[in-house]
Amino acid sequence: MESNDVERLQDGLLQNECSEMYTGDGSVDINGNPVLKQTTGNWKACPFILGNECCERLAYYGISSNLVTYLTKKLHQENVSAARNVTTWQGTCYLTPLVGAVIADSYWGRYWTIAAFSTIYFIGMCTLTLSASLPALKPIECVGSLCPSATPA
User: Fold this and answer.
1) Beta carbons within 8 Å of 149's beta carbon, 6+ residues apart
2) 2 touches 10 (CB < 8 A)
């Protein structure tokens, strides 16, 4: 065997060895370097994602089942406007994952997209809880049959 053949064989072996170390699907880390198979994937983020999804679904269905009652009884909205607001809220909840999918696939990755949108969801839940709990954020109570509507603020 000539020395050129030996060099090509060694280069081929090194290339195969390197290709087995990396994911091979074009994945890059936060610095733009190819991702090592040993440090990516697996089940590291799975408990966070599953736990987050469980909590989100519980919160969503808890709110959606009571939101019309809250809007009509506590915020003194008419049935039509309360139903419209709930439908708008539900539609937004079901369409925003499409935006999240584009962001996750193109920019941030699955973990950071879920973390960012979970934070936004949590802030919204806290705001809703505060609006139902703090007396300063509640509308004026009904006096007899006179129920003033809540202000937009």
Assistant:
1) 75, 76, 77, 139
2) no
In eight-state DSSP terms, residue 49 is H
Q: Positive or negative CA dihedral for 79, 81, 85, 87? A: positive
C-alpha gyration radius of the chain: 27
Q: Please give the chain's pLDDT, 153 residues, in tens.
A: 566 655 554 454 445 555 677 777 777 777 878 877 777 666 777 888 888 889 889 988 988 888 899 888 888 888 999 999 999 999 998 998 899 999 988 888 888 888 898 899 899 889 888 887 887 777 777 777 777 766 666
User: Residues near 23 by Cβ (< 8 Å), separated by ≥ 6?
Assistant: 34, 35, 36, 37, 40, 41
Angle at which helices 79-103 and 110-133 cross, to 10°? 160
Q: Domain spans of the chain?
A: 1-40, 43-137
d(CA 133, CA 107): 38
Q: pTM for this one?
A: 0.62
